[in-house]
Design goal:
Blueprint: E1 17-18, E2 21-22, H1 28-45, H2 49-62, H3 68-85, H4 92-104, H5 108-121, H6 126-138, H7 142-155, H8 158-164, H9 176-182
Antiparallel strand pairs: 1-2
C-alpha cells in the first residue's frame, strides 16, 4: 500500500462561540461591565432599588456596550419601584395600616421602617410602639418586644388589655416578664 504524506499543520484553537458570534478572548473591560451588571441585578433582586439604579447609571456612564439597552431598561424599572415605595398618607393612622399590612405579609424590615417613621412624626404614637412590640415578638426578639410594649402601655394603658388577647404575642406567653407586664395586679 502506498502511503500518502499528510502535512503537519498546527491546529488553531478556536475561541468560544455564542449565538451572537465569538466572544473576544481576555476582554477585561467586558468582564468588568458584566460583573457590574450582575451586581446591579443582585441589588435590584434584593429590592435595593436606589442602589441598583445608581449602579446601572454608573454602568451606562462608563459605556455599557452591548448591555446598554438592558441597563437602561432596568435603571428605569428601579426608578419606577423607588417612586412606588415612596407613599404618601393622609394621616398617621393610614400610615400605621400600611405598616401593619407589611407586617402581615412578612415584610418585617419594611414594617419596622414604617413604624419608626410614624414615631419620628409623632413620638406619642403608642400604636406604633405596639406595632414594634408585635413585630419584635414575631421575629423572636423578646427584649425589644418588652421594651416597646412597656412604653406603649405607659403611653396608653389600653394597650395592656389589647395585648392580653392578641395572638401575635403567643411566643411571649411563657416569658414571666411578659406575664408580669400584662398582669401587674396579680
Amino acid at each position: 500500500m502506498a502511503q500518502t504524506k499528510t502535512a503537519n499543520i498546527p491546529a488553531t484553537k478556536r475561541g468560544p462561540r455564542t449565538l451572537a458570534g465569538t466572544v473576544p478572548a481576555n476582554d477585561n473591560a467586558r468582564a468588568q461591565i458584566v460583573a457590574q451588571y450582575e451586581a446591579a441585578l443582585r441589588l435590584m433582586q434584593e429590592s435595593k432599588y436606589d442602589k441598583a439604579h445608581a449602579a446601572f447609571e454608573k454602568m451606562l456612564a462608563a459605556g455599557a456596550g452591548e448591555l446598554s439597552e438592558r441597563a437602561r431598561m432596568y435603571s428605569n424599572a428601579c426608578l419606577l419601584q423607588t417612586n412606588k415605595v415612596k407613599n404618601s398618607f393622609a394621616n398617621l393612622e393610614e400610615h400605621y395600616d400600611y405598616a401593619v399590612s407589611l407586617l402581615n405579609d412578612g415584610n418585617y424590615e419594611d414594617a419596622r421602617e414604617q413604624f419608626t417613621l410614624i414615631l419620628k412624626a409623632n413620638d406619642k404614637a403608642d400604636y406604633a410602639l405596639y406595632g414594634l412590640a408585635v413585630l419584635s415578638s414575631m421575629t423572636g426578639d423578646a427584649q425589644r418586644c418588652l421594651e416597646h410594649l412597656t412604653e406603649a402601655i405607659r403611653q396608653n394603658p389600653q394597650n395592656r388589655i389589647q395585648a392580653r388577647s392578641d395572638s401575635d404575642f403567643q411566643d411571649m406567653a411563657d416569658d414571666p416578664r411578659f406575664t408580669e407586664l400584662l398582669y401587674p395586679e396579680v
